[in-house]
Amino acid sequence: MDLFANALLIFMTIAMLSFSSISDSRERTLPRAELAAVERQALGTSAVTPVAITAQHADGGRVRYFVRQEEIARGDLPARVGALGAAAVVLRIDKRLPFEVAADLMGALQRLGIRHVSWAVLEQ
User: Is 113 left (phi over 0), alpha (psi -120 to 50) or beta?
Assistant: First the structure.
């Protein structure tokens, strides 16, 4: 009986680990081809400041989206990212965005309790 119970316990543990790794590896984002098309469109449009934000959540999911200049100016972007429950945020910032605006955005995200805020400059 103990051998059967141990075998069942090992099987259930392996099954749970396999299932949890599958569910944690999902991405809540657009397919790569669509992301590239949206990014090209954002870079080609003067009304959009191409700040791409990738929010990494504690459950392993990722959300990526592009930000308009008006959203940064209004200051509602950090609250929206914070409401997503992001644990880490990576900003890809167009070099045309003033440094002070990017620094304010990063500081606001850190004040919301997001542990990791990193950035990279888009050279377009």
Answer: left
- Retrieve residue 53's tokens: 């934000």
Q: Which helix (H) or strand (E) holds 37?
A: helix 32-44
Where b means 16+ CB within 10 Å and e means fewer, 4-16 reads: eeeeeeeeeeeee
Of 47, 61, 123, 121, the closest CA to residue 91 belongs to 121
> Could you read off the pLDDT tens digit of each residue along the chain, which spans 124 residues?
577 766 666 666 666 655 544 443 444 444 556 555 555 554 444 444 456 677 666 666 676 666 666 666 676 666 666 666 666 777 777 777 777 777 777 777 777 777 677 777 766 5
Q: How many CB atoms lie within 10 A of CB 3?
A: 7
For 22, the token pair is 């599958």
Tell me the C-alpha distance between 44 and 49, whole Å: 10
Query: Can you name the CATH fold of 27-122?
Result: Cytidine Deaminase; domain 2 (3.40.140)
